[in-house]
Amino acid sequence: MDYSPALMTDMYEYTMLDATLRDGTANRKCVFEVYTRHLPEGRRYGVVAGIGRILDALEHFHLDDDDLRFLADRKVVSSQTLKWLENYHFSGSIKGYREGEMFFPNSPILQVEGTFGECTLLETLVLSMLNYDSAVASAASRMVSAAKDRPCMDMGGRRTNEWAAVAAARAAVIGGFKGTANLLAAQMYGLKAIGTAAHCFTLVHDCERDAFASQIAALGKNTTLLVDTYNIEEAVKTAVEVAGPELGGIRIDSGDLASLAQRVRNQLDALGATNTKITVTNDLDEYALAALQTAPVDSYGVGTMLVTGSGAPTCAMVYKLTERENADGVMQPVAKKSKDKASIPGRKLAYRSYEYNLADCEHVISGSEDQLAAYEPQDGWKDLLVTYVDHGEIDAQYQGHDAIMAAHEYRARALAELPITAQSLMKGEPVIPTETTVL
């Protein structure tokens, strides 16, 4: 589909732009910040994902003639604003947490700096990508921890919107997954693609033996055969008869997975197929994966619970103005004082401190540009912010396949730096506190 990221937004962003262009405030320099006030209930940490997709979208964030005509026909904005939009190009700067980084309440995950007009248009797109992708990556990270390093694969495409499926596959790999069943995601991002056959493949053949023989003829003995269409014990026996002890793997998609995996492992070993791998699927989540830790399972396919954030499909991130140029041309911190929604004024620095090589606190420092430039963190504090866009120039190292793989590795290191209680599936508070200092 050919579409404009500039219309993946809420109408009020364009009406605000229109009004501020009329009154002259659209050109005021501003700093917007993305953060979450709280983690999903009981979660110990979150994982940042989606920034690479934001950068990809930013490259194409402009309106063509059809888009401008749509805004004009709907009378969304004035002719003056349409003229301004003809040449729209984000010329500001963006910095934030790395993809794969841990985040906590009030972490300044992303900061967008530019004029009010150019920054306000990005709000919905930024939030939709960060909220969903980070929710999936956070769930994936919990699942990978529960799986105890046995590979997890994304099989959730059929359980969500077709475009969300592509985003979820990317976010899952950042969260620690090893591959995806979604071919478009594999093509777009260079991800490992996985998949062999479903139950319908067995059912369309006259018997299970014919189905297995057909699959092996097409894909080779290293393929994975689905063995729970009829009787698992008979299917495993037939699979080894057809493929021999070199059979690559079998998949179980129903029943008591732990008990079945144990029986199947013993049966495979007795048949001489000692190297045949066992994959299990069927509505897995982090709790089911934890329950399978002692079962002889080699890999997992996860679907519904992955693409829905395992019960937390959003991170409740918000995009708030924290600093703006006043009528005198001076940058001034601003904040909401709304009940239960108050924000922290000013642009931010973010660091993480450590004791005995384990993170013990997130430090958020708020102040003016000059104050932050002069700020000196304590020895050993880790700077959590990187620059993604510098005056309109996107840093390409944070886009594409290599960036995803770097985020995949970074997440594992960042999680290992947190206290081990971060990996607990029991409900609890964020594993480290966030301390905010206003200079």
From TrEMBL:
It catalyses: 5-phospho-alpha-D-ribose 1-diphosphate + nicotinate + ATP + H2O = nicotinate beta-D-ribonucleotide + ADP + phosphate + diphosphate. Keywords: Glycosyltransferase, Ligase, Phosphoprotein, Pyridine nucleotide biosynthesis, Transferase. The keyword Phosphoprotein applies. Its EC number is 6.3.4.21. Residues 152-322 form the Nicotinate/nicotinamide phosphoribosyltransferase domain. The keyword Zinc does not apply. One of its GO terms (cellular component) is cytosol. Transiently phosphorylated on a His residue during the reaction cycle. Phosphorylation strongly increases the affinity for substrates and increases the rate of nicotinate D-ribonucleotide production. Dephosphorylation regenerates the low-affinity form of the enzyme, leading to product release. GO terms for biological process: NAD+ biosynthetic process via the salvage pathway. It is an enzyme of class 6 (ligase). Pathway: Cofactor biosynthesis; NAD(+) biosynthesis; nicotinate D-ribonucleotide from nicotinate: step 1/1. InterPro entries: Aldolase_TIM (IPR013785), N/Namide_PRibTrfase (IPR041525), NAPRTase_N (IPR040727), Nic_PRibTrfase-Fam (IPR007229), Nic_PRibTrfase_pncB (IPR006405), Nicotinate_pribotase-like_C (IPR036068). Residues 7-131 form the Nicotinate phosphoribosyltransferase N-terminal domain. Pfam families: NAPRTase, NAPRTase_N. One of its GO terms (molecular function) is nicotinate phosphoribosyltransferase activity. Catalyzes the first step in the biosynthesis of NAD from nicotinic acid, the ATP-dependent synthesis of beta-nicotinate D-ribonucleotide from nicotinate and 5-phospho-D-ribose 1-phosphate. Belongs to the NAPRTase family. This is Nicotinate phosphoribosyltransferase.
